[in-house]
Write a structure and sequence with these properties.
Number of helices: 13
Strand order of the largest sheet: 9-10-1-11-12-13-17-18
Distance between the termini: 101 Å
Shape: extended
Strand content: 15-25%
Length: 487
């Protein structure tokens, strides 16, 4: 028997969904900033110097929590039956500090700023401290504390940074503010910053940087952003740091940019490259830049390279190589690698063929090199590696929606249609040559389906960078004969 006389609507959850491409231009940066802001305590000021009754109430604890504190001053009232002078007093009740202003027997206020300061100062358990005072009288008021700020860059904590407003609070000392400036010279990029303690001892500093690099894997949980380009500018010349970046790059499906030591020779760089693998790009020259004091200095290239990678992602697409693209706002390079177009034995080409990137000067300074340290010809190009990472992560994040639904043909078709639609979208953007998804007929057995396991295959055709163009030319004397005959 029907329970309803009318029309009902039921929302169906089956069907394909749109795949959202992950954010690719997110830089993970580890470094030091000993002068970084420690936060600010909330405060409020009442009174005026003219009346000599200025008082400033400041939260004892630094941070935004102080913004919830309130200070109220009320006039004291003498007892009606036995009128006598009421002294100035204070009481703290959770977030409220109440001050009773002293008065004489007739109810006339006699509380001075000094009286209020003494009352609050002697109060046990007060959440605020008071400064100032004076002989001037204080009237009733009701004020909330404000301007309290948490520490913007706590040690060993991922912090998302965009633009200069926040990173100016890092202070000029250490490595972080200069590196962020070099990133943002290329593009106003989203960076996940991990500040570590600055240590005087080399081994202690290395340990601090390594601990900070390990924190990068928590970035998504803390900030909702996952870094895809990892750097530790000023420290990655150390192979322990470089290898830690490479390890994290594997966990995060990212790439790591590793700097070479100042003055490193080609032989030293090539030998060092053999220590690294599929997700690391070795950068040879240091770049000449101007620091915040206006001094011309040589700096590791990784921060500018990360900013360049982010800029190319935004302006052209993550499937583009950053090679042969302009590097903004650098004045020169520490070592000049000879570049002769078409010469296989020039310095720049020899480095590139050893999977090392450099900088050439050609209508400005350009990044020159496509390759990671991988020996796998399929994934030696950074743009191909990142294409695979973007596709795999984007699909994986989207397909989570289909987990734990009934394992039937409808669910399988929805997943396949979702992936195929995404492949068509990427093909339309020019990011890939094509791709498709299908059920794996061999692995999808009755037993695997009964155990709740579904196998779906997909492939895609990434676009490699045009690393070499071979122009074939020959002399054709027939043109001269044609011209003579035409005459």
């Amino acid at each position: 028997m029907a329970d309803l006389h009318g029309v009902e609507t039921i929302e169906l959850t089956s069907g394909s969904v749109a795949v959202t491409t992950i954010q690719t231009a997110v830089i993970g940066l580890v470094g030091t900033a000993p002068d970084a802001s420690t936060g600010a305590a909330a405060f409020v000021t009442v009174g005026t110097p003219i009346l000599d009754n200025t008082l400033t109430f400041t939260a004892k604890l630094v941070g935004r929590a102080g913004n919830t504190l309130q200070v109220v001053a009320v006039a004291g009232v003498p007892d009606e039956e036995l009128p006598e002078e009421v002294p100035t007093s204070a009481v703290q009740n959770e977030q409220l500090l109440t001050i009773t202003l002293g008065c004489d027997e007739a109810g006339t206020l006699i509380a001075t700023a000094d009286d209020v300061a003494d009352a609050v100062g002697s109060l046990a358990g007060s959440a605020v401290v008071v400064s100032g005072g004076g002989a001037g009288l204080v009237g009733p008021f009701n004020e909330k504390l404000s301007s309290g700020e948490d520490e913007p860059f706590p040690l060993n904590t991922p912090v998302a940074v965009v633009g200069s407003t926040l990173w100016s609070k890092l202070g000029a000392a250490g490595t972080l503010q200069q590196a962020l400036g070099e990133i943002n010279n290329q593009r106003n990029a989203l960076s996940i910053v991990v500040r570590v303690a600055e240590e005087q001892d080399e081994e202690a500093q290395r340990a601090a940087i390594l601990a900070g690099i390990n924190v990068l894997s928590r970035s998504k949980t803390v900030t909702t952003y996952q870094p895809r380009i990892l750097i530790a500018t000023g420290f990655s010349e150390d192979d322990a740091v470089g290898k830690a970046l490479e390890t994290q790059a594997g966990k995060l499906r990212a790439v790591a940019y590793v700097d070479c030591a100042s003055g490193a020779t080609m032989q030293e760089v090539v030998q060092r490259r053999q220590m690294y693998g599929a997700r690391t790009e070795i950068l040879r020259p240091r770049v000449q830049v101007s620091n915040s004091d206006g001094q011309i200095i040589y700096r590791p290239y990784s921060a500018a390279a990360a900013g360049l990678r982010a800029r190319i992602d935004y302006e052209k697409g993550w499937w583009w190589s950053k090679s042969n693209q302009d590097i903004y706002n650098i004045l020169g390079v520490e070592q000049i690698d000879e570049f002769i177009l078409g010469d296989e034995n020039c310095d720049a080409n020899l480095l590139n063929m050893q999977n090392i990137s450099t900088i050439i000067r050609r209508s400005g300074f350009k990044h020159w090199g496509n390759r990671l340290c991988s020996i796998d010809p399929q994934f030696r190009f950074e743009s191909v590696r990142r294409t695979a990472d973007v596709i795999e992560d984007s699909i994986q994040e989207t397909i989570l929606e289909y987990v734990d639904r009934p394992l039937d043909r409808t669910n399988a078709d929805d997943i396949i249609n979702t992936i195929n639609a995404y492949m068509r979208q990427l093909h339309g953007l020019g990011a890939i040559f094509g791709g498709k998804a299908w059920l794996d007929e061999e692995l999808n057995t009755a037993e695997s389906l009964a155990s709740g396991v579904l196998y779906i295959n997909y492939d895609f055709g990434p676009k490699s960078p045009t690393e070499r163009i071979t122009l074939r030319v020959r002399v054709n004397n027939q043109y001269a004969l044609e011209e003579l005959n035409a005459a």
